[in-house]
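WARN  no MSA supplied for this record, continuing single-sequence
INFO  ligand: fructose -6-phosphate
INFO  echoing inputs
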Amino acid sequence: MEIIIQPDVDAAALLVARVIAREIRRKPDLVLGLATGRTMEAVYAHLARMHRDEGLSFASVRTFNLDEYIGLPAEDPGSYRHYMNTHLFHKVDLNIRNTYLPDGTAPNLAAECDRYERAIVERGGIDLQLLGIGHDGHIGFNEPLSALRSRTREKALTLSTLQANSAMFNNDPDKVPRRAITMGVGTILESKRCIMLVTGASKAGILAKATEGPITSMVTGSALQLHPRCTVVVDEAAATNLEGIEYYRWLFENEPEWSTF
Ligand code: F6R
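INFO  complex generated
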């Protein structure tokens, strides 16, 4: 794992967008894993701008989202399909048939989870997985005590997640679906590369636990310490509790990969 510290939220989101753009230019049919949530909105805004102004093409890219609420149809404004259409899919030249999210309305949810896992494998696996982290340490919707080898499955959301995600549901946690389909921690760890974006002072505590603390299913983001190629991009506000902060700053200044950023 490596941690990259950027001065502010926008610089952090821009760096993540530039890494994604570089990977798409290197491999136009990239299999890209996507996340939702407020943190990602700035990344998608940068990618949409790069498509518009810099000729970045998503025409051959395939995407797999981490998760979707159970019971919400695609057209529901609270669904993650709707979020993705609004923030990215309808703003770039992605072929919508190459964009995959779990179907939270499928009659047989276990079969849908298996189908999703197979679909990822059939397309060669995820090349680059974008991630955020929840205040309870979740990646995807892998809430505390999710098995670190878990696969795509149904998961009940924690009260903290219902609260955090209520903005899309008239600020009413009771309106947030109680369950979701999520890629498992094991599924995420099989991606060839991961990039996690964490911003804001409210995430400083959980960021330090996930990156510098022990690997534990209580903080599923900590499983990323097992990933052979995981970059965590943070802003100064999120970085305040990190013990290795000076080393991380030095790495960004000196590692060849980051010399053009
Ligand atoms: C959603 C997802 C979640 C979010 C996390 C942070 O697809 O993967 O793990 O990344 O809940 O959400 P925000 O950015 O809203 O704090």
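The two ends are 18 Å apart (CA to CA).
INFO  checksum written, moving to next record
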